[in-house]
Fold these 3 entries.
Entry 1:
Amino acid sequence: MKTALITGATSGIGKATAELLANQGYRIIVCGRRKDVLEQVKKELSKLTETFSLNFDVRNLAEVENAISSLPENWKNIDVLINNAGNAHGLEPLSEGKTDDWDAMIDGNVKGLLYVSKMIIPGMKERKSGHIVNISSVAARQTYANGVVYCASKRAVDVISEGMRLELTEFGIKVTNIQPGAVETDFSKIRFKGDEERAKTVYAGYEPLKAEDIADAIAYCVNAPSHVTISDLTIYPSAQSEPRTIHRKV
């Protein structure tokens, strides 16, 4: 039975992926910052498969190192790492942006991914097997005004994924970079500081992707035959033609 470690597993894409892989027979390590929610997710998943939880913030290197190092011996061999934790904060031009927002995005989307990966990769290299899935965004493909730092952080994920592939393929480790378009999760609510009405406008007038759609794509990639690597996968809702353009009915 393979073991998958998923960051940002308490909601959205991370939780949907944990549920799907659990149903497919994976053992699951769910990771998240909100301890109460994390334990509830663990309880739900435990009805489907063996489940372990790690409570840490990917932005904090010491927490990452302590949490992953604390895994019991029978949970240390990670077959699949899904770097899903990330965030967007604010939608202002650079001249009006808040540096705390910039730090949160760069620390979570870039440095957090690196911190977790650095802890898991040595074991995969030693075993000469593994699969790393990084969740980027279509924002990496086309920068948009008022989202410069977020776009930059996701472009970094693309570059890191490419670099991982160059460094790890010889060790039998697959690397997949997934770029979702508009997905209806808590993403926009977080970006707009809890303003639910403003967040709803992001998904108005068309059918956005669901977290389960991205989970399906992740499962397809990690379950591909051993000789197949899905290196990059871009997923749009049918109403979205490119990162900045969504065709709405109203």
Entry 2:
Amino acid sequence: MFGNRICVPDDAELKREILAQAHGSPYAMHPGSTKMYYNLKRSYWWYNMKKEIAEYVAECLVYGQSERTIQTLEDMLRACIIEFQGSWDDYLPLMEFAYNNSYQSSIGMAPYESLFWLGLSNTFVLE
């Protein structure tokens, strides 16, 4: 024990299980890293706890964004197949174009637009 908190040994699997339960609980409502840290620190303690919680929550956010992207693409393909008939692979280039040219709130622009701006920032002028 560390005060009134349980000291968690340096066991990655055990810590991961604690984090998964804290983040996935129906009562947690997917808390951010700060809220999750304050909730967990009442009962647990381990070295670098705050950092590990932040990394875990960031990982969950990335996974969730990927899942939403996949679902969006599946919905777009399904709509094309219903509307135009045929095989999904016939419409894959169309979906890629539509998705890459659609506004993404996470980056504040379309993916193709971000490539354009990245390209400009990587160019230089020879005099």
Entry 3:
Amino acid sequence: MEPNTGVTFEDVAGVDEAKQDLQEIVEFLKTPEKFSAVGAKIPKGVLLVGPPGTGKTLLARAIAGEAGVPFFSLSGSEFIEMFGGVGASRVRDLFSKAKQNSPCLIFIDEIDAVGRQRGTGIGGGNDEREQTLNQLLTEMDGFTGNTGVIVIAATNRPEILDSALLRPGRFDRQVTVGLPDERGREEILKVHSNNKKLDKDVSLSVIAMRTPGFSGADLANLMNEAAILAGRRGKDKITMKEVDDSIDRIVAGMEGTKMTDGKSKILVAYHEIGHAVCATLTPGHDPVQKVTLVPRGQARGLTWFIPGEDPSLISKKQLFARIVGGLGGRAAEEVIFGETEITTGAAGELQQITQIARKMVTVFGMSEIGAWALTDPAVQSSDVVLRMLARNSMSDKLAEDIDNSNHIRNNRDAVDKLVDVLLEKETLSGDKLRAILSEFTDISSIKVERIPIRELIEA
């Protein structure tokens, strides 16, 4: 038991919606009589659902800290023992102590370890786990009125929890603690950079823009990696160079041995410039951030893009642009070196664009056969004609459009110039790439201006 966690909502960034949902829990723990006077019953249990590293445990500690109440914390796996009855006994002891210290907050992390659906046969028929869950259900159902004991649990697998655990009267509500958006990532970065020395060129908004899909734990790790890298390089401050290198390392892996000059290096250079040129010349594609010949992980070279504001909502134009950009590397190999010299380097990209194309037809309804979702098992098993139409539409239509978008052949001089610069510098920024490309072709009409949503709202 912690008498006071010392953590408040000020220490939790990037999850404003979850904090608003949990604010009334704090108010009840502070002033329960205000709710009791009008006959209101506060939820007995709150389930925090979200991916790992999004701050579920920190939120629970912040609730207790805001309300100034004792905080009981343990993991679901701590209940489970090989000896029968131990888990159930621990549940009884926990709730007994909690009632003696009410108002208080109980936090059970990874509740799926003990709250898994009963009768599934998973776990080798472990009766001890089911006894523990039964005792937990009994204790939560046995609360009388507003006792001031609130149970908060966290999981990233809510679909496997027992239905009895989620019914009203136990875990009354589910609060989603999702991955932060761009603004949330910027707030989280502010928290994790408070104790670090940053150079004046470090822009937290740019870092937030480059890190879609990062959780709070990922962003904390990013700033720590940047600090380690700065120390290793003998610097007294973290610069944008360390942050960029840390993002590359987290996303793509450790930096490998640089390639020596030769055919392989030239081929990789044309491959990556093919991606960058096709992406830049295709409306709707994310802008190029940089192109590099520095190997990372399994990749011999990489083309990085600055992602859009909301990666969860993607238009048909954007999806098609990703297909064209993804095929740019293979197209460059074929145009420059000939069809017999194409390599296996495009294997991963071909898998990705095939998946995009298939989903455009079978999931998103973005084909000439209309707004059909062909992923439903009943449709897939019964309507063979629709599946054949989808397959034909996907191959012929996309092939025709992609042939009409052969930016490599149409801009051969620009590609050669970009490859020469890339071979010399080994890393080419997006701004430099667009500047060189604009010398050979007009890109002003397809330049995508990135306007953050918050600026649109303020306007």
